[in-house]
């Protein structure tokens, strides 16, 4: 009598999981908002920049606008002022953050609150205060004239690129101070105490212990300041620096004063390209710093 071995029945295939449309429905509204508020204006500007003088489409407006010497001067001046202001903000902001974080003094909390207050002010208000202080008829010049008896204003730099750089450093330095203070707050005090107990000087502790931990915050603050100063218009306008024509000021002149919308669109496209290039550079730098810290 032979036994018949029954082969086990193949397990029934489980039905494929049904794809839910709920994630897509939740993602769709923010994507539409971004497309409407960011992508559409940029595409509209790019489309307007292709309008030629005869009403057609082509690259003639780009060629004529970029060939102008005033545009190249404005572009170079914009980059120069932005880089100079960023360097000044990094130096001053690092100094202020180190003093506030590691050198306590009476009134340090008040200084920190004042720095936070500057972040809430519009840029033109700081520039207006500079006019009252350092303008040709400002308080500082009036005091100097009273002390020296001179009839000529001793300070007359607000209408120069240095005046714009000075005003931007004053306004944008808190954007460097705040990330650095947050980074310094995460630094273990025991690490500083160990370095000091081993005989390291304060400068060596700062250079080898404090600053390496603050590089990501410093890069983030510096990139933000560079992006803001690259697109700053209010400070340039309110300083009254007629000879300091930056790219945003030139866009305003083309679009509002002379009503050259295609030319203004070309300059705006260049401005957008600069901003996007800076943002991509910041992302690459931040990713590299993050990977280096994780490897170490």
Summarize the structure in short:
The protein has helices at 22-49, 60-66, 69-102, 108-120, 123-134, 139-148, 161-172, 174-185, 189-197, 202-230, 234-238, 247-257, 261-295. It is mainly alpha-helical and 296 residues long. It has one domain: MetI-like fold (Orthogonal Bundle).
Helix content: over 70%
Per DSSP, the total helix count is: 13
Number of folding domains?
Answer: 1
Let me know the largest β-sheet: none
CATH topology: MetI-like fold
Residue stretches low in confidence (pLDDT < 50, at least 5 long) are 1-5
Give the CA-based shape: flat
Name given to the CATH architecture: Orthogonal Bundle
Structural class category: mainly alpha
Q: Radius of gyration, Cα only, in angstroms?
A: 28 Å
Count of strand segments: 0
Instruction: Determine the CATH superfamily.
Output: MetI-like
- Please indicate the percent range of residues in DSSP E strands (runs of 2 or more): under 5%
- Mean pLDDT across all amino acids: 80
- What's the N-to-C terminus distance? 74 Å
CATH class: Mainly Alpha
| Element pattern in H and E | HHHHHHHHHHHHH
Provide a descriptive summary of the structure in words.
This protein has 296 residues and is an all-alpha fold. It has a single domain (70-295), classed as Orthogonal Bundle (MetI-like fold). Helices cover 73% and strands 0% of the residues. The chain contains 13 helices and no strands. It has helices spanning 22-49, 60-66, 69-102, 108-120, 123-134, 139-148, 161-172, 174-185, 189-197, 202-230, 234-238, 247-257, 261-295. The longest helix is centred in the last third of the chain and has 35 residues, at 261-295. The protein starts with 21 loop residues before the first helix and ends with a helix.
